[in-house]
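[step 3/7] fold_predict: job queued, chain A
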Amino acid sequence: MKARSKLKERNTGTTIQGIDFAASAFVVARQMLGMSLLIDGVGGLIVETEAYDEKEPASHGFRGLTPRNAVLFGPPGHAYVYLSYGIHWCLNFVCREAGHGAGVLIRALEPTTGISRMIKRRNRDDLRLLCSGPGRLGQALGVTPALNGKRIDAPPFELLAPNVSSRVVRGTRIGVSKATERRWRFGLAGSQFHSLPFR
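[step 4/7] structure written:
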């Protein structure tokens, strides 16, 4: 039986399954690829992420702390959930030290666990489309605003370290109109479950 992830405080920040979430979102976004993410026992392998930081205008934290984005400003190792286009709940993991707004958007998973529940939630049985994109992923995993601010080392979350290391591909982020030159989108090379191809 796989052990649940454990969180331990270090001088450098919050470490979960070998990843220091007090590091930059750019670093954490790469390191999360290949991890298993489950919410209430439903999920799969993280195959695509995007990094965001308050110093660049595509980030929710760019204009500073507000009641709406407060969770993004820490502490690290918590979930930041927001509504996209008034329709989809999107899941992010907070990075950097408390007071600095940064996070990693979980863009796509390869479904492995609780697939029947994903199919029911999405009303779709094509595995490649169940979690390929942050909105689809949010629906498949049952992401709601109730998860906003929750620690990601405790139920309903479960994070498991990758079994093997894999090659990472990079590209520009999707759906942003600012800081479009930044290649802060990351994916597992060769995955068939990316939201869009990497070029």
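[step 5/7] annotate
The chain has one domain: 7-188.
The radius of gyration is 15 Å.
exit 0
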